[in-house]
Write a structure and sequence with these properties.
Elements lengths: L12 H14 L4 H15 L5 H12 L5 H44 L6 H26 L3 H15 L4 H17 L33 H14 L4 H15 L5 H13 L7 H33 L2 H7 L1 H29 L3 H16 L4 H17 L6
Helix pairs in contact: 1-4, 2-4, 2-5, 3-4, 3-13, 4-11, 5-13, 5-14, 5-15, 6-7, 6-13, 7-13, 8-11, 10-11, 12-13, 14-15
Length: 391
């Protein structure tokens, strides 16, 4: 199979559902970790996508609003089975986390608290770190395959570290890549796609949200607005939720918002299922469903609109060069986030040892990442019981 050719066989909807149900139930660590696990599953193990196609889809997810890892799942579903695959892969990835956060929302409403398991994260974070590093190591040679792209990667990482907006870094990477390609010679003739077609899609206004009562329709419209305009990480989501739910509408207290974000962190799958928890707390099961539908619906729409453009972009010399720049900038963003994750994950000698063991297992035995994550959780519990965990 060449670097650019897609596999001839198609994936069954059952295979898509089983894979993304499992990932949705076991993938911890946030969007960067989720994407790393998907790369391992669909590029290395199943060979459903080539590395180049995976990078193209990753670049596309970074150019549209919404949860990146969920959009990546939806893109993979589209690539393998078009419309049915798009729906099945997206829902399968979302539903397990939605059910878990909904259950925690029920417990929170009933008992006024949520369970804590510090030892769980203590063991899982180093393993997730090893998985992400492996993915970056595998994708980097293709993404940064030329000297200009490697220079662009360093520049993108530097700008990210100093606080430049993520979207500006990605768009700047694409534009600089095109500019660099035009310096020595004009690009070869070929079917071209105007660059304005690969700019982020303009979000549709979600409408005003009534603040007089926490109704199901109000929750749906609020989270539809957030899902339509939100770029960036879960920390950006926190800023949006605080501005709307705490300051503007007064539906949640600061303490309740922190609890909601914690639930999004302690459950696997998309961090955006924080919306499920908030919806349950504010309006019960119907509120949970409305908030979940609202925040994830734009992701399906944006992928459906942008997905068919990705092959055309790659076929166009100018747009393909732009996508190369976006891809290498995306990988630089992943690298910076991984360094930040490393600071939080490697807190003492046991966590460093866990990360090294996980990296060795991935290098020599290539175990399923879900088993590695569960093994990290078990190791964290054992270290906690033995009194060897520092926190």
């Amino acid at each position: 199979m060449s670097a650019t050719a897609e596999p001839a066989e198609k994936t069954s909807l059952g295979e898509l559902a089983l894979l993304f149900l499992r990932l949705g139930a076991t993938a911890f660590g946030g969007p960067v970790a989720h994407i790393a696990i998907m790369e391992d599953e669909v590029v290395r193990r199943r060979r459903w996508l080539t590395e180049e196609r995976f990078l193209d889809l990753l670049g596309a997810t970074n150019l549209i609003p919404g949860p990146n890892s969920t959009e990546m799942a939806i893109h993979i579903g589209w690539a393998r089975r078009r419309w049915p695959g798009l729906v099945v892969a997206g829902l399968a990835f979302i539903v397990p986390a939605m059910l878990m956060t909904g259950a925690l929302g029920w417990a929170y409403v009933r008992y006024g608290t949520i369970p804590t398991a510090v030892w769980f994260f203590y063991g899982v974070k180093p393993v997730v770190l090893a998985v992400v590093v492996q993915a970056i190591w595998g994708l980097a040679p293709r993404a940064a395959r030329t000297r200009p792209l490697r220079i662009l990667a360093v520049l993108a990482a530097t700008l990210t570290v100093v606080g430049v907006n993520e979207l500006a870094v990605l768009l700047g990477g694409g534009l600089l890549s095109v500019a660099a390609a035009r310096l020595p010679r004009s690009p070869p003739a070929g079917p071209d796609v105007p660059l304005h077609q690969i700019a982020p899609l303009l979000p549709v206004a979600a409408g005003a949200v009534a603040s007089s009562a926490v109704g199901v329709s109000s929750l749906f419209l609020l989270f539809l607005k957030i899902g339509s305009v939100l770029f960036g990480s879960g920390y950006v989501l926190l800023a949006f939720l605080r501005a709307d739910l705490v300051e503007r509408l007064g539906w949640l207290s600061e303490s309740q918002l922190i609890d909601a974000i914690a639930v999004g962190q302690i459950t696997p799958g998309p961090v955006f299922t924080t919306a499920t928890f908030i919806g349950y707390v504010l309006a019960g099961p119907n509120g949970a469903l409305a908030a979940t539908a609202g925040i994830f619906l734009p992701a399906f729409v944006f992928v459906a609109l942008s997905g068919p453009l990705v092959p055309r972009l790659r076929a166009s010399p100018t747009a393909g060069t732009f996508l190369d720049g976006v891809n290498v900038a995306s990988l630089a963003l992943m690298t910076v986030v991984t360094l930040q994750l490393g600071h939080a994950a490697l807190v003492d000698l046991p966590t460093v040892a866990l990360a090294l063991v996980a990296a060795g297992l991935l290098l020599w035995f290539r175990p399923n990442t879900s088993w590695l994550v569960l093994g990290g959780a078990g190791a964290g519990w054992a270290l906690h019981v033995l009194g060897l965990a520092s926190r």
